[in-house]
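Changelog excerpt

This revision adds worked examples to the README so contributors can see how folded entries look when concatenated. The first example is reproduced verbatim below.
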Amino acid sequence: MASHDTYDKLIALLDERGADYRVIEHESEGATEAVSRLRGHDLAQAAKCIIVMVKIGKKEKRFALVVVPGDKRVDVAAVKALYGGTYASFATPEIAEELAGSASGTILPFSFDERLELIVDPALLTHPEFYFNAARLDRSLALSTESYREIAEPRLEPVAQD
């Protein structure tokens, strides 16, 4: 299954770069609120990862992997404005899963696809570590924010709303 390949790719990257992380095994769960309870942390420390499609004019489409704290929502209008887009919406589940290499509910806050720009709301990175499903519904990571910034090199933009 593709998501296990994505999980293995992530763990290999983190190990190769000496990241500070912990693996957390839990019941299968993809909803941010529910999985945060299983992992035992504040919702604001969860990475909610959503793929947004932005149309620029009539012919061009761009895709952004937008990561916000678990207690916030993606501000689609803000993402559209970053690209000077004419329209923006959540990508279809099929496109999101293809670009992310994993199922909805397990999308990583890392991009392994050159068509997918990683945009992270700075509010997520105010904690020493944050949590996310690791391309699997039954396994999460607690990742050091410092390691994440060094390895993922996200574009930091205010893209979350209450």
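The second example, added in the same revision:
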Amino acid sequence: MKKLFVILEFFYIFSQLSAFDLTDAASTIEDIFSSSIDSNEGNTVFRSMNIPSGGRTEALGTAFTALADDSSFFDYNPAASAVLEKTEVSVFHNAWIADSALETVSFTRRNGTLGYGAQLKCFYVPFSEYNLYGDRVARNYYSETSLTINTAYNFLAGYTFKGLAVGLNAKFAWRSVPDYTDNRTDSVISGSGLEQSALGLMADLGMLLRFNALKFYSDRTENLKVALTLNNFGVALTGFGSSVTQDDSTPSRISASLSYKPFSRVTICTELRKPFLFTDLSSGTLSFASGIETQITPIFAFQLGFLLQGANPRFSLGSEFELKGIKMDVAYTLDLTSSANPVNHISVSAKMTLGDRGRKATMEKVDASYLAGLRLYAEGYYNEAILKWNEAIAIAAASPLCIQFEPAIQARATAINFNSQKAELDNMYAIDFDDE
């Protein structure tokens, strides 16, 4: 009951925040950041690819490219599937502007150092057509639907150095535009929804580097991540009612991101993004995103985020709580980037973890063999210790871990070196004894 009370309290707070009227503040902020406006902003199709799925990522200001530690990674860094600890199935809902919404479902899984997954997204806006007399003659939806197929691999994965993960997303998107009744004829579709609909073929490339630096706590997880990605580069085709032609450019961008965890319960994320087109035109100025997450308890976390994109910033806050293996996220966003007036909206997500495929249990076996080797070495049984360390190395290198276990490798090398020096000393002693 206590957990339920906390959840309901946060939903109440977020619902009250959505009632704020900050129109005057938005105008003032827009004047301050007017230099960030690009006259070519928005010269792309499939703009829904830039809308966050919602939940935790949006609460962190969308500064998620380096953090990328759950199934939200599809929109940010395709390399993340190769390093996630657990299999995840997730659903997201983001209530966007003007009655539009974004629905997302995703799945990701990891086998050793190979990760893969898929995501389905649908952005839709209600569409109604009225005649000259004000009668509604058609009701439908404008929508943009995308399917993302992901694969990634973590190179040089080890115990100390976590490896370099590289990933690829292949994206297939479809823009559906409703037909206008007065543009239809029996034989020709001219200016109709099919003519304006579009097919998008896009890809993402990403890399993720993980290691430890300036770490003020002890555990096995890395505390520093660096990421670089190229998102949404590709082509869009239109004119399916007559002749197919290439449409405007897709919303391509390059992102550089950093995630730093100085303390065990605090994570800081920051990110720079630059939209670009494969033409002479630019498509937006450099944007900046940042977020901070505090783990209040093992099952409850709180996030704050900020995004400066164009002349108006976006502020967000959210929380994540875990109930019986399901992580629930709720985020409130004050969005000044979408229109002349501030827009408040709430997004939610649910992520269900389906286990780690035995990685934790296997790591415990590695630890047991390694510690047994240390005990044998301390007791003077060097050859037996080497055998135990060989066992630890072999278990770690096999599935499902597929890592180099450096502590056992280093300990084995020390023991082998000691045995070699001991053999040399014994040989020298034997020679001296023979001479006497």
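Reviewer comment on example two: Helices lie at 2-17, 23-32, 56-59, 193-196, 359-378, 382-397, 406-435. The mean pLDDT is 84.
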